[in-house]
Design goal:
Distance between the termini: 43 Å
Oligomer: single chain
Largest sheet: 8 strands, mixed
Shape: globular
Strand content: 15-25%
Length: 223
């Protein structure tokens, strides 16, 4: 069975929209396209290479697939980051779109229509599936408990609004940190593997005060 690894660049407030440039995704009035690029340094590049160092296929939502398909096939493989362009050309790209036509003429592209197709793909033998961007797809993967690992690049900015990594409805899970790194410019890179169930504990007093009892009663009334 393959693993699904969510790779995401996020702000401190969880936004992952348009990290690479202002034309990537200006929908919903997003004004900060390209907010990640000022933080791209040696450590950043090394960790991106590490994410893509093992055999993998790309799993992308339609919008991110279209961004990639209009960019990476035209990128000079001898330029900086040309290795990524070459790897993307060689691997399979799975584009997930529930409806509408999708131009899958990019070499090695396969169209999936729904999350059931993704579940079947995950059960097959083959390289791991790595997401990039693809907010709606990532939300669906988390809601359907299909995320095996996450590599998060957290940039020290607060954007205030935009499409976010997490939405209500994710399947509850704990994750364990397997490696991490902090770059000289404050970028935090962390890789998480799926853990177990959520554990809870209680800090309540053995004998709650009258004020605490009143507070709990008010919480019940207010819903």
């Amino acid at each position: 069975m393959r693993k699904i690894i969510v790779g995401a660049m996020v702000s401190m407030d969880g936004v992952m929209q348009a990290p690479g440039g202002p034309t990537e995704d200006p929908t919903q009035g997003f004004k900060f396209g390209g907010w990640v690029m000022p933080y791209f340094n040696q450590e950043f590049g090394e960790e991106v290479d590490r994410l893509f160092s093992e055999k993998f296929d790309l799993l992308l939502g339609r919008k991110t697939y279209e961004i990639f398909a209009a960019y990476w096939p035209y990128y000079d493989e001898d330029a900086r980051d040309g290795g990524i362009a070459k790897r993307f050309k060689e691997i399979k790209k799975y584009a997930v779109s529930r409806s509408g036509e999708v131009d899958t003429s990019w070499q090695g592209s396969v169209l999936l229509r729904d999350i059931a197709d993704v579940k079947r793909l995950r059960q097959e033998d083959g390289p791991n599936l790595v997401t990039q961007g693809s907010t709606e797809l990532v939300h669906a993967l988390l809601a359907n408990d299909l995320v095996d690992a996450m590599t998060l690049f957290t940039v020290p900015v607060v954007l205030g609004s935009g499409k976010k990594l997490f939405a209500d409805g994710s399947a509850p899970h704990s994750y364990k940190l397997t490696r991490s790194r902090i770059s000289s410019n404050g970028l935090m890179i962390a890789h998480y593997e799926r853990g177990g169930e959520i554990k809870t504990s209680d800090t309540a007093l053995d004998s709650p005060s009258e004020r605490e009892i009143s507070r709990q009663q008010r919480m019940k009334r207010e819903g």
